[in-house]
Amino acid sequence: MALQDLLQPDTSPLRVAWFGHFQGPHGNGLAAYSRQTVEAMRARGLEVLFFAHREGAAAAGPGQDVALRAVHLKTVTVSLPGSLERIAAELSRFQPDVVHVSVSFSLLDGAVASLAQHRHIPAVATVHLPYGRLHSARARILREVYRFQAWRLAHFDAIVALSEGQRALLIESGCDPSRIVVIPNAVDTQRFSPGPSHLRASLSSRFTVVYMGRLDAEKRVPHLVRSFLAQGWGDDHQLLIAGGGTQRRQLQHLAANHPQVRLLGVISDVDERVDLLRAADVFVLPSTAEGLSLALLEGMSVGRAVIATDAGEDGAALGDAGLVIPVSPLEPALGDALRRLHDDAALRRTLADRARARSLAVYNIRTNIDRLESLYRELRKADADAESPR
To answer: CA-CA distance, 20 to 388, in Å (whole number)?
Structure first.
C-alpha cells in the first residue's frame, strides 16, 4: 500500500452483502430492522445486496434483493436445497467488501460466514437473540442458546451486540471479546416522529393503549388484554393490538364481546406503523425476554408514554423516559402502571417528551449507520493490510 493511501481517509464506496429478513406473515422486528438499515445504508451511498428468505417460490426481489426459498419452523428458518449455492454465486458476482449477517438469518448463518472467509471477505454478525433475567427459567434456556450459537459466531470477524449486557453474555458464552462491538438498534427518527394520527381521529377514543409486535408466548399480550379489561374502563377506552403469531386465536377469544379490544393484524407499512403509534396515549411491551425491541424504540421516537418490562435491554433503553416494570411478577405492576398513566396526563406528556429526546440522542438510525460504516471500513482496511505484501 502506498504511503499516500495510508495518510488519506478511506472514502471509497462500500459494497455490502446483507443477510436479513423480509416481512413475514406474522410481522417481526427483525424484518423492520433489515428494511430500515438497508434503506439507510443505500441512502448513505453504500451499495447493498440484500439476501432474505421467502416462503414458497423464491420470487426475484426488487432491485438488488435476493429472495431465497425456505420453510419456517416457529423461530427457526430452514433454507431449502440450492440456497447456499445461490448465495455463493451471488457473492462471486457482487464481490462485496463485507458480508453482514443478522442472526438468525437461517440455519446457514455459519455457512455464510465460511463462504466469506474462503473469499477473504470480512464477515460481521449482529446478534438479535433475546435474553432475560439471570434467575428465570427462560433466561437459563436462552443462555444455552447463546452457548450453542458461539461456535457459529467464531467464524465472524466482528460481532455486533445490542448492549453491554449482551456483550457480557456473549463473552460468557465463549465469544472472543476483541471481536465484539456494541451498536444498539436504532430507528429513523425523522419518519417515526410526533404528529397527528388519522387512526386516532377515527376512533373517538378518550384513552388508547397500543401494543405492536409478534403475538407469541414470550410477548404476553393475553396478559395485557386481561390487565386492560380488569380496569373496568368503558368503550371510550381502547386497546389496539397490531401483529400476528401463535396466540392470535387466543386473543380473538379474549377480545370477543369486548369492543374496546381491537386486533388489527400485521401492519408492515411504515406510515401505518407511525400512524398507529401516534394514536396511542400509552405504548405497552410486557415481554418476558428481548434483545432490544425495535417496536419499543419506535414508540419512544414517536413520542409516546411507554410501559415496558425490564427484559433484555428494554428497561435500560427506556430508563426514566417511561415506566419500567418487573418481568415477574407482571401483576400488579402492569395494572398499576396503566392506572397511573391513565390518571396523570401531565406525567404522560413528560414521559413522551423524554422518550422522544432519548430516541434522538441515543437511538437515531443515522448514528447507527455511522458506526456500522466505520466498522466496515476498519475491517476492509485490516483485510487489505493483511493481503498487501510486506
So the answer is: 32
Phi, then psi, of 3 in degrees rounded to 5:
-60, -40
CA nearest neighbour of 119 among 231, 233, 15: 15
- Pairing outcome for strands 261-265 and 237-242: parallel
Q: Confirm whether pTM is higher than 0.85.
A: yes
Picking from 134, 132, 126, the residue whose alpha carbon sits closest to that of residue 159 is 126
Q: How far is CA 376 from CA 3, 159, 223, 342, in A?
A: 22, 12, 42, 46
- What is the dihedral sign for C-alpha 66, 71, 74, 76? negative
CB atoms within 10 A of CB 387: 9
* 277 in Cβ contact with 212 (< 8 Å): yes
Distance CA 341, CA 208 (A): 11
What does the pLDDT look like over 78-134, one tens digit per residue? 788 899 999 999 999 999 999 999 987 678 888 999 999 999 999 999 998 887 655
Structural domains of the chain in order of their starting residue, each with its CATH number: 3-186+364-387 (3.40.50.2000), 198-362 (3.40.50.2000)
